[in-house]
Design a protein that fits this description.
Layout: H1 13-18, H2 21-41, H3 47-56, H4 64-74, H5 77-88, H6 102-138, E1 143-148, E2 151-157, H7 158-183, E3 185-186, H8 202-213, E4 216-217, H9 228-254, E5 262-263, H10 283-297, H11 299-304, H12 315-343, E6 346-347, H13 349-356, H14 365-374, H15 379-396, H16 400-405, H17 408-411, H18 416-420, H19 431-446
Parallel strand pairs: 3-4
Antiparallel strand pairs: 1-2, 5-6
Helix pairs in contact: 2-3, 2-5, 2-6, 2-8, 4-5, 6-7, 6-12, 7-9, 7-19, 9-10, 9-12, 10-12, 14-15
């Protein structure tokens, strides 16, 4: 019976398969097999035993049902795996798990699961980056109103919006490279990290196991791979979620009826409301913003998992069973939805232009002030004069530039030609150049 929505509602089948019981069991078996091969290479166990263990360390031989049956009897998950594998290996089963403690297997298997998951997250981030590059290029000159404090500020461009998000996504890809170097580590160090149970060639055994599995050995551990690494991982996932939250929130705001400059795609047969047939609700971006809250909440337990009693306690284990798959599956959902929304983003150029002129040119107050200072008026004096003219235009509901033209003080400094040049489309600074710089930076790093 499915209970958590990630079982039936959120996440791709690929990501859910990674964290499914079968694949998790297989990763534990992969580590046990690699350990047996390492022992055989060093002459600690017969090569034939390593071969049999390796051949049978898979879910065709070791059934999940049998592992659960044993665990129900002995109440120890890893020993249940060890016993189930030993059963199918016959006389060679006595060499399974030689020298290892549970977390040698768990933490190394976790690294394999995380590696698979990060590979999928990286592919989504690259796709999101490509979509944002296309949008930034296409809308480099699409002038729109910029907003601060929810109020109209000065003009910007949609290219700037997309390039800002693009730059952030590129940073996530660069962060990911560092995360992989630090987090994709395993261990074969025994009960408290001294590796005494593996003998004098313990570090060589560990090196062979990690090379076999495509991981690196942790530099030092107690019974656990240090959990600051897992905390960093979960914080990274939450940081990616915050970017998607940012994108979703902006699209939701821009889709508001009063603004309606862009809209997430709306299907031909899509229903917006059970009672209001006209509704076009931004349900996809709302979902993204909502799920981000769960990702953020998982950071705290990840941080609390780092301080444990002495060389190990069990308080982190149950938490990680929840927050690792949940964070990865939910971020998978958020990334896929955001990509779909951006690919199908609908623009309303007439509303973009309407909103640009909604305040009747009040947004030209800053360029007017600067033009006055260029012609010799003091900056503070210009600011106060323009402020008074702007407040007058607002109170009287008149066009700002109409009021400005009536000002004798302004006319002492500026000609009609100067005033005619005060158009929103003329006040986007070097926005296209900034967008080009971002695109150039990203392209150089995506080769």
């Amino acid at each position: 019976m499915a209970i958590h929505p990630i079982d039936y509602r959120y996440g791709s089948e690929k990501m859910k398969r990674i964290w499914g019981e079968e694949n998790k069991l297989q990763k534990l078996l992969d580590v046990e097999a690699a350990l047996a091969r390492a022992h055989a290479r060093l002459g600690n166990i017969p090569e034939e035993s390593a071969r049999v263990i390796s051949e049978r360390a898979n879910t065709k031989w070791v059934k999940l049902e049998r592992v659960k049956e044993i665990e129900a009897e002995i109440h120890h998950d890893i020993m249940a795996v060890v016993k189930a594998l030993s059963e199918v290996c016959g006389e060679h089963g006595k060499y399974v798990h030689l020298g290892a403690t549970s977390n040698d297997i768990i933490d190394t298997a976790n690294a394999l699961l995380i590696k698979e998951s990060l590979g999928l997250i990286e592919s989504y981030l690259r796709e999101l980056r490509d979509v944002l590059m296309k949008l930034a290029e296409e809308h480099k000159y699409t002038v729109c109103i910029g907003r601060t404090h929810g109020q109209h500020a000065v003009p910007t461009t949609y290219g700037m919006k997309f390039a800002l998000w693009l730059d952030e996504v590129q940073r996530h890809l660069e962060r990911l490279e560092g995360i992989k170097k630090r987090v994709l580590v395993g261990k074969m160090r025994g009960a408290v990290g001294t590796a005494a149970s593996f003998g004098e060639r313990a570090l060589e055994i560990e090196r062979l196991v990690m090379e076999d599995l495509g991981l690196r050995p942790a530099l030092i551990t107690n019974q656990l791979v240090p959990r600051d690494l897992y905390a960093e991982l979960v914080m990274f996932l939450a940081l990616v979620a915050s970017t998607l939250d940012k994108i979703g929130l902006e699209i939701r705001n821009l889709q508001r009826t009063e603004i309606l400059e862009v809209s997430e795609p709306f299907g031909e047969k899509q229903v917006g409301s059970s009672t209001m047939p006209h509704k076009r609700n931004p349900i996809r971006t709302e979902k993204v913003c909502g799920l981000a809250r769960v990702l953020y909440s998982n950071v705290i337990p990840a941080l609390l998992n780092n301080p444990l009693w002495h060389e190990r306690d069990l308080t982190n284990s149950s938490v990680e069973r929840v927050i690792l798959p949940e964070s990865f599956v939910l971020l998978d959902e958020m990334l896929r939805v955001t990509i779909r929304v951006l690919k199908g983003l609908e623009f309303f150029p007439e509303n973009i232009e309407r909103n640009l002129y909604l305040t009747k040119n009040l947004i030209m107050a800053e360029p007017l002030m600067l033009k006055l200072t260029e012609r010799g008026m003091g900056r503070q004096e210009a600011h106060e004069l323009v402020r008074q003219l702007a407040m007058k235009a607002f109170r009287e509901g008149r066009d700002f530039l109409e009021v400005v033209r009536e000002s004798g003080e302004v006319r002492k400094y500026l000609s009609e030609e100067d005033l005619a040049s005060l158009k929103p489309e003329n006040y986007i600074g070097v926005a296209p150049e900034i967008v080009d710089n971002v695109l150039r930076y990203v392209r150089e790093r995506s080769l």
